Amino acid sequence: MKCRPALTNRPARAARSGVTLLEIILVMAIVAFFATLALPGFDRIFAAQRIDKSAEIVRAEMGRARVQAIRTGKVFAFVYNEGRSELAVRQFDQLVQAGSIEHFQRPGGGPGQSPAADVRDGNMDYSNERLPRGVRFVAGQAIADIRSQFESDAAGGGAGKLKPILFYPDGSSQDAQIVLANERGDAVRVVLRGLTGSARVVRLAE
Questions:
Q1: Radius of gyration of the chain (CA)
Q2: Which range of residues forms the domain containing residue 199?
Q3: pLDDT tens track of the chain, all 206 residues?
Q4: Which of 112, 124, 165, 178 sits at 20 to 30 Å (Cα–Cα) from 56?
Q5: How many angstroms separate the most distant Cα atoms in the chain?
Q6: Does residue 116 fall inside a structural domain?
Q7: Cβ proximity of 196 and 172 under 8 Å
């Protein structure tokens, strides 16, 4: 009779588990590399979103100026600081009473006072009558007409360094256009049609 070979007491080699520190470092390096490649793309996306939102803000504020003019029977102005990000909607005769001013008057402020500190939580926020971060007004023009000249004279002059676009109680406005740009050079134009007082956004070719 053949005898079976004796069983050995040696344990089977355990399967290797876990990862080494070197492998972890290698994976982290690869992830960091691809993240670095992706960052410029994300920056372009966020910059485009901010300028698109800024154009919609301008269009909406123009609409608000038109509604206020119709509702009150007064001439209202959409005003902005060229080269800056500040904008506001004001009753025109009250706006020009401040005379030649550098910045917008805010509660507690006065003519020539520096703008309030920017305390926004995020760079997409619209607050303190400013566009989202990184976007500014770079150019603009409002076509002078008989009514705008009459309103300016009746109010006692111009609005100083602010750029006003007038909205009338009958729902019309001045013909105007404004160009916005961000830090990457992306630009959009907001075009206002005076006959209807309605605005549209046009993206400019890069």
A1: 30
A2: 22-104+127-203
A3: 555 555 555 555 555 556 787 878 888 888 777 666 655 555 677 788 899 999 999 999 999 999 999 999 999 999 998 888 889 999 988 877 655 444 455 544 443 444 444 444 455 455 678 899 889 999 999 998 888 777 766 655 555 566 789 999 999 999 999 999 998 888 999 999 999 999 999 887 65
A4: 112
A5: 127
A6: no
A7: yes
CATH number (domain holding residue 187): 3.55.40.10
Residue type, 175: D
Label each residue of 48-83 as H, E or C: HHHHHHHHHHHHHHHHHHHHHHHHHCCCEEEEECCC
Determine, yes or no, domain membership for 6. Answer: no
**Interatomic CA distance for residues 125 and 130, integer angstroms:** 9
